[in-house]
């Protein structure tokens, strides 16, 4: 009558905090993450025949996360995701794939009286670092790294003109507008054969490069459109990180509308006189792209 066509299960929203204490200097380093692990394999009978013998309980997955976090460094989420995913496919013969998602939250060290404080941190924005890893038996480990919720704005240096016009078009062209977006940027790595290959990669340096490129390009590009600016970001990340195969961005265009105040004593607040704007919550533009390397010419 029916058949199971998709099955994956595990623990979501495992909150994890780890402190590394340098006993010599007294300096602490903290990492906070939210982990999701989902397993795939020969688990059909748990759904179709109430056979729990094949179930690695979701509570076991939570305990495993804590134990492996104790036994391994976690501050590079790509490394930890690979270790965790690989653990499931190596430990349980009937588990063939593990999907690990790690959200890393920001704890930035405080500067007190001009000096980095040894054990106090603050949340400097809602930006998160995200890793989605899949360890698949017989294939290897795929990893996608992401920046999410990085809110940016520039008050000039952005234009939008020359776009298609027809009887549905009302938007005026602009040579100077506010540009604001919440960056979601992802980069997919080449397939890794095993955890050792993953451990050899400096993912923190790549994340720093992707973030620097995003911010610098956003700030300095004389933007013709969100589309043109985001493509430049993708292109530079591919050039800067050779092991990355695919870069993608999703950028909402968070509009700031001019307000005509001329009705009040002729106040000038449009065009070059515009200083007070109305930020819009919705609707917003949403511009997405995925960029890969051109295949090498055979000539
Ligand atoms: O950078 C932009 N790209 C668009 O596709 C678009 N569409 C729109 O109304 N404003 C903008 N801005």
Automatic annotation (TrEMBL):
Purpose: Catalyzes the oxidation of uric acid to 5-hydroxyisourate, which is further processed to form (S)-allantoin.
Catalytic activity annotation: urate + O2 + H2O = 5-hydroxyisourate + H2O2
GO terms for biological process, alphabetical: purine nucleobase catabolic process; urate catabolic process
Name of the protein this chain belongs to: Uricase
GO molecular function, one term: urate oxidase activity
UniProt similarity note: Belongs to the uricase family.
Annotated compartments: Peroxisome
EC numbers on record: 1.7.3.3
Chief place where the protein resides: other
Pathway(s) it belongs to: Purine metabolism; urate degradation; (S)-allantoin from urate: step 1/3
Record-annotated active site: 11, 58, 255
Gene Ontology CC: one annotated term: peroxisome
Annotated O2 binding sites: 253
Residues binding 5-hydroxyisourate: 226-227, 253
Class of the enzyme per the UniProt entry, highest EC level: oxidoreductase
Keyword Oxidoreductase: yes
Residues annotated to bind urate: 58-59, 160, 177, 226-227, 253
UniProt keywords, alphabetically: Oxidoreductase, Peroxisome, Purine metabolism
């Amino acid at each position: 009558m029916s058949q199971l066509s998709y099955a994956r299960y595990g623990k979501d929203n495992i909150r994890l905090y780890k402190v590394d204490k340098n006993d010599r200097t007294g300096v602490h380093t903290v990492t906070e993450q939210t982990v999701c692990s989902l397993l795939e394999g020969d688990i059909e009978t748990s759904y179709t025949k109430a056979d729990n013998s094949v179930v690695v309980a979701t509570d076991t997955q939570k305990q495993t996360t804590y134990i492996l976090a104790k036994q391994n460094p976690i501050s590079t989420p790509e490394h930890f995701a690979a270790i965790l995913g690989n653990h499931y496919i190596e430990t349980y013969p009937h588990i063939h794939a593990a999907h690990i998602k790690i959200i890393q939250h920001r704890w930035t060290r405080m500067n007190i009286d001009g000096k980095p404080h040894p054990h106090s941190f603050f949340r400097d924005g809602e930006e998160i670092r995200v890793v989605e890893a899949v360890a698949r038996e017989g294939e290897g480990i795929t990893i996608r790294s992401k920046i999410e919720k990085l809110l940016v704005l520039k008050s000039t240096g952005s234009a939008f003109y020359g776009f298609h016009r027809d009887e549905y078009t009302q938007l005026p062209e602009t040579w100077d507008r506010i540009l604001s977006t919440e960056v979601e940027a992802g980069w997919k790595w080449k397939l890794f054969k095993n955890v050792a290959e993953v451990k050899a990669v400096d993912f923190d340096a790549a994340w720093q490069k992707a973030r620097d490129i995003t911010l610098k390009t956003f700030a300095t590009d004389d933007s013709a459109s969100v589309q043109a600016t985001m493509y430049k970001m993708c292109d530079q990340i591919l050039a800067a990180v050779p092991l990355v195969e695919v870069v993608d961005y999703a950028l909402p265009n968070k509009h700031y509308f001019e307000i005509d105040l001329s009705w009040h004593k002729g106040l000038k607040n449009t065009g070059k006189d515009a200083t007070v704007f109305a930020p819009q919550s919705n609707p917003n533009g949403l511009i997405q792209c995925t960029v890969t390397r051109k295949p090498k010419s055979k000539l």
